[in-house]
Amino acid sequence: MTYIIGEIGQNHNGSVEIAKSIVDLVTSPIQENLFNLDLKGMDAVKLTKRDLSEELTESKMNEPYTGRNSFGSTYGKHREALELSDEEHKEVYRFSKDAGLDFVETICSIGAMSLLKHFTPDKLKVASRDLTNLPLLQALSETKIPIIISTGMAGQEELDNAIDVITKNNSDLSILHCVSEYPTQPQNVNLNTIRFLQKNYPDYKVGYSDHTIGISAAVAAVALGAEIIEKHITLHRDMRGTDQRGSLGPDGVKRMVRDIRLMEMSTGDEAIFIDPSVRSAKQKLERSIASKVDLLPGDILTEDSIHLLSPGTGLPWTERSLLIGKTVKKKISKNELISLENLS
C-alpha cells in the first residue's frame, strides 16, 4: 500500500496550533460513498527543521523581505518567525503519534539535529537542495533512522554520491522522484523517472514528491508503481506563506488520498480474465445466436437465417457450427434466441 506523507513543511506559519489543525485534517475520514468504502487515510505528516545559523549568508539574512508572504522585515526575521522550537516540534510529534500517524522530519543542517535529543521521528527526510550536502547525509545516516531523499535538484551522479554516503551506515533508504519547481509545470514532471529509478535502484523503495497543481500527477505516480507519495498540505490555500498556494487544501487532501487508495485497488493482476463481478452484465449485454426470420418446423438452419441479439445467455457466434444444418423441430419466432433443444 502506498505510504502517503502530508507535508506540513512550514505551512503552520510558526504556530503549533495551526500545525495541529493540519494534523487533524489529515486524520479526517476518507470515504467513497458510491461503493460505501472507508479508505485508509494518509500515513504520516512531515515538518521541516532549520538551524538559521547554518542556513544563509549574513547578507541574505539581512536582505529586506516585504510582500504578502512576509513574516518579518528581513529574510532572517521572516525565517525566525516561521521556525518552531525543538520543544514545539516534539509537541506536534506527540499530537501526530496520538492521532495514529507516523511523523517524518526534514532536517536541514547538522545543527538542526539537536531536535533528535527530544524525540525520534519515524523517518528522516533530506530536502532536494541537501542531496549534495554530504556532511549532513553522513550525520543523518549515523542515526540509523530510515531516510527518504528527494532528487529534485539532482542528476544521477549527485544521486549516486548521496546513496554511497548514506548506505555506508544505513540501508533503510527510499528515493523520491521530484522536480524542484514550485509549482511544477506539466511538461517538466517526467513521471517516467519513477520507472528509471525502479530499474536502476532496485534495492530501495521509489516514490514521488509532488509539486504540481492538483492531484493527477500523484495518482498517476501510484499507477507507475510509486510506493511513497509526498504532497504539501494546508488548511487553506489563501493563507500567507510561499507554499500555501501550491499545497492541497482540505478537499484536495481527501480527493487525492481517495483516488490513490482507489488506484491501489484498481491495479490488479497482469492478466486478462472475466471477473466474477461482470458476469451479470455479460449475460445481459453480450449477444447470442438468434433467428433472423421466422423458423418453422422442418426448416434447415443456415447462416443466412441467424444473427446476434442480446441477452448473452444463449450460444455465441463461435458455436454456430452446432446449429447450422440442423432441422427446426418447433417454431422459432423471428428475433428470438435459438437453442439446441429446438433443433433435431
Overview of this protein structure:
- The chain has 2 domains: 3-267, Aldolase class I (TIM Barrel, Alpha-Beta Barrel), CATH 3.20.20.70; 276-342, Type Iii Antifreeze Protein Isoform Hplc 12, CATH 3.90.1210.10.
- The two termini are 57 Å apart.
- Helix 8 runs parallel beside helix 9.
- The chain has 10 helices and 12 strands.
- It has helices at 16-26, 58-61, 75-82, 86-98, 134-141, 156-167, 193-200, 216-223, 250-267, 279-285, and strands at residues 3-9, 30-32, 37-39, 44-49, 102-107, 123-126, 147-150, 173-178, 205-210, 228-232, 288-291, 306-309.
- Strand 6, helix 5 (134-141) and strand 7 (147-150) form a beta-alpha-beta unit.
- With 344 residues, the protein is α/β, with parallel strands linked by helices.
Helical residues, percent: 25-40%
Q: What is the number of E strands?
A: 12
Rounded radius of gyration (Å): 30 Å
End-to-end CA span: 57 Å
Unreliable stretches covering 5 or more consecutive residues: none
- Strand line-up across the major sheet: 1-4-5-6-7-8-9-10
What is the level-2 CATH architecture name of the largest domain? Alpha-Beta Barrel
Shape: elongated
Largest sheet: 8 strands, parallel, barrel
**Helix tally?**
10
Here the CATH topology of the largest domain equals: TIM Barrel
Q: How many domain regions?
A: 2
Short overview:
The chain has 344 residues and is of the alpha/beta class. It has 10 helices and 12 strands.
Write the layout of secondary structure elements.
Layout: E1 3-9, H1 16-26, E2 30-32, E3 37-39, E4 44-49, H2 58-61, H3 75-82, H4 86-98, E5 102-107, E6 123-126, H5 134-141, E7 147-150, H6 156-167, E8 173-178, H7 193-200, E9 205-210, H8 216-223, E10 228-232, H9 250-267, H10 279-285, E11 288-291, E12 306-309
Parallel strand pairs: 1-4, 1-10, 4-5, 5-6, 6-7, 7-8, 8-9, 9-10
Antiparallel strand pairs: 2-3, 11-12
Helix pairs in contact: 1-4, 5-6, 8-9
